[in-house]
Write a structure and sequence with these properties.
Elements lengths: L1 H14 L12 E2 L3 E4 L4 E3 L4 E2 L3 E5 L2 E2 L14 E2 L3 E4 L4 E10 L2 E4 L4 E9 L2 E2 L13 E2 L4 E3 L4 E2 L4 E2 L4 E2 L4 E2 L4 E2 L7 E4 L4 E7 L4 E4 L5
Parallel strand pairs: 1-4, 2-5, 3-8, 4-9, 5-9, 8-10, 9-11, 10-14, 11-15, 11-16, 14-17, 15-18, 16-19, 18-20
Antiparallel strand pairs: 6-7, 12-13, 20-21, 21-22
Length: 208
Amino acid sequence: MAGLDSRVKKWWDRKTLPSFATPAAGFEMQRPRSIVNAAAMHIGTGVKLGSGSELKANTRFPGGWMRHPQGEHISQDFQPTITIGDRVTATGALQVVAFKEIVIEDDVMFAANIFVSDGSHGTTTGEVPYKYQGITGIAPIRIGRGSWIGQNAVIMPGVTIGELAVIGANSVVTNDVPPRCVAVGAPARIVKRWDLTAQRWRRVEEQQ
């Protein structure tokens, strides 16, 4: 009976998914989950996202929770897209929040509790609560094919992560990371590069 219950649960989870811009064959997103504006999302085949994940293509800000009761907030409209390639996986609690464009290429692997957003809350003044200052610094994000994004990482607006790069746990990525590099820290810095000739990882100090 337990096996049957599991199959029924998976069937119901798929049945209750919204319609995406593309068919999203084999897509699984475990509950609890949150999907906002699925029509702006292009999902590849075989994508698997663990529980607690959120995909949000925000067309306006603020939402209900962030509005000032007297309307003393900045209101904005957006035309976002989220593109997720084939066989992308996430352990759980992946948050992808788009105001413009986020692209995640094929075979990217996310650990748990990762935040990816192409916009930040405004900090124009220190006199007004930041949740009422709108979204600023909006710039597209791209995460390259086959990359591995470690536990608790934060990917900031405007960042491009090259293919087969590794982002260490607890890293905050504020600048581009080239292909086949390991970046760690807050802010993240490159500590290793893959040497195609030697077929091994080299520390950055070895190459200086």
